[in-house]
Amino acid sequence: MAGQVQPHYDAGRLDAVRDSLPCDADVADVADVFALLADPARLKLLLALLEGELCVRDLAAVCEQGESAVSHHLRLLRAHRAVQVRRTGRLAYYRLGDAHVRLLLDVAVTHHDHAPPVIHPERG
């Protein structure tokens, strides 16, 4: 059709970008991390752990969640290495998995604090 602009691209650049991408399995693993963080209850637990380690009972109280739900979320977070556990007798104390988890949370919170307000049509 007359008047339509044909896309112009540099095949070499596209090949370089394509080659720089992680493999599909790695992309899926990273997407799983973001899905893990996308749950508000789990995110709240992780944000609470920014202040230091806490036991399940304390996390449940701080985050206003049931202990059973907190335990379930912590199992998922442990499976993805987002948290670590230290046991003392019958008590289990949880902390962030490593500095990368802290960095992800810090960047997300900073982004939220500096970004303009978002209108969420799905929240009404």
Provide structural commentary.
The protein is mainly α. It has helices spanning 11-20, 24-37, 40-49, 56-63, 67-79, 99-114; strands spanning 54-55, 83-88, 91-96. Helices cover 57% and strands 11% of the residues. The model has no long low-confidence stretch (mean pLDDT 91). The protein is built from six helices and three strands. The chain is elongated and about 70 Å long. Helix 3 crosses helix 4 (56-63). A three-stranded antiparallel β-sheet has the order 1-3-2. A hairpin with a 2-residue loop joins strand 2 (83-88) and strand 3 (91-96).
Strand content: 5-15%
- From N to C, what is the helix and strand string? HHHEHHEEH
- The proportion of residues forming helix, as a percent range, comes to 55-70%
Strands across the major sheet, in which order? 1-3-2
How many whole angstroms does the radius of gyration measure? Answer: 20 Å
**Could you give a short account of the major beta sheet?**
3 strands, antiparallel
The 3D shape can be described as: elongated
Distance between the termini: 42 Å
Average residue-wise pLDDT: 91
Number of strands: 3
Broad structural category: mainly alpha
Low-confidence stretches: none
The count of helical stretches stands at 6
